UniProtKB/TrEMBL annotation:
Hydrolase in keyword set: no
Family, per entry: Belongs to the KHG/KDPG aldolase family.
Molecular function per GO: (R,S)-4-hydroxy-2-oxoglutarate aldolase activity; 2-dehydro-3-deoxy-6-phosphogalactonate aldolase activity; 2-dehydro-3-deoxy-phosphogluconate aldolase activity; galactonate dehydratase activity
Name by which UniProt lists this protein: 2-dehydro-3-deoxy-6-phosphogalactonate aldolase
The protein's annotated pathway: Carbohydrate acid metabolism
Assembly, per entry: Homotrimer.
InterPro entries per record: Aldlse_KDPG_KHG, Aldolase_TIM
Record-listed E.C. numbers: 4.1.2.14, 4.1.2.21, 4.1.3.16, 4.2.1.6
Transmembrane intervals: none
Broad EC category: lyase
Pfam families (alphabetical): Aldolase
Statement: the UniProt record of this protein carries the keyword Lyase: yes
Amino acid sequence: MLPSRYGRHPCPASGHSSMTPTDFYTCWQQETLPLIAILRGITPADAQPAAEILVNAGFHWLEVPLNSPSALTSIRLMREVVGDSARVGAGTVLTPEQVDHVARCGGQLIVSPDGCPAVIRRTRERGLISLPGVITPTEAFSAIGAGASALKLFPAEQITPAIVKALRAVLPPHLVCLPVGGIQPDPTQMGAYRRAGADGFGLGGALYQAGMSLHDLRLRAGAFRQAWHILADA
């Protein structure tokens, strides 16, 4: 487990079914690096060292998509090493049964490419954080109604900052919205989304790709951290 100097994460651990959008928004405001690391394709052999690299770089949200090799094993291994210093969960969660599998291996976060109400409801029943994917106002309000903790705006390649701004005009103000897809360690790109109302980002292939070296992951994590701090200090 990572040493105690990394501190306890501000968001409650799994088992807190009261993680409403307002609750999640409150804890997200304390986040110093509001970025979710999406580790699609990671293997159990790299799970713990990758988690250590990311937490050392300041990341507190780690996602292992379920279409990765032995994803549940990787989630369990990451949970063991990060302890209370970060939150670990699953992505590409498509069914309520998969939510149950993630909960049993210690996952704390459920991320989906869509806003399936049954998945959202099961996530909240299991006391996990629900982050469904949406692209339209109809999908967004359906997900909120089902109990989503926050929204993943996906794919961000199709959701420009102008669209984010339009969505924010009608969505509840205390609701975390995170564009995911095509985000680069570029303060200009990230800044445009932030000014439009994005609360952070999910990072996919620009941060991690299957088979990449841990050295490259460390470099990319550092680049995203630097980009965010340049943006935050602007």
